[in-house]
Amino acid sequence: xxxxxxxxxxxxxxxxxxxxxxxxxxxxxxxxxxxxxxxxxxxxxxxxxxxxxxxxxxxxxxxxxxxxxxxxxxxxxxxxxxxxxxxxxxxxxxxxxxxxxxxxxxxxxxxxxxxxxxxxxxxxxxxxxxxxxxxxxxxxxxxxxxxxxxxxxxxxxxxxxxxxxxxxxxxxxxxxxxxxxxxxxxxxxxxxxxxxxxxxxxxxxxxxxxxxxxxxxx
Length: 218
Prior knowledge:
Number of helices: 3
Strand content: 25-35%
Order of helices and strands: HEEEEEEEEEEEEEEHH
Oligomer: single chain
Distance between the termini: 80 Å
């Protein structure tokens, strides 16, 4: 019985660790006066799931955002811009967002809604650093449309964002992929496909430097 209890305890810890890893917060650092989103194991793509736990089937609040204590000054603001249109992965490929469906991002009285058509634009400030100069904050993600909350079109919905602040430079771009009723294999395929879309910050710097060098040639 002791062995069985030990095995169950270890397995339970493993499951908890895997769940925490899947929904780990988006870590944000400050480098050279700018916000920097640190990569996940999948690169600059972060995973979330609609309908987990007691949440409605079309609601998600993970991943959240984490800034370690001491990196900011108390009261410093953190917000986001929408860098690209809403992405939709149908289980095998990217496709147009299903008709009538949209995804809202909300916090308190602030809201932004994406439907895959001309979504790029400003978001809003959603957090301020606490007295220790850190932030731990979630946003609310809601999938809207006919059949909500449990009978919308299955797929992975991707938010292509960048973080902003009046006190710091804008961050590198990243994607949050939110799963609605896809199986794990189909969803992970979408995460991998999304990771290939986001250039790493170093690649962007090299590309910019190369373009500047070409412009300067006689």
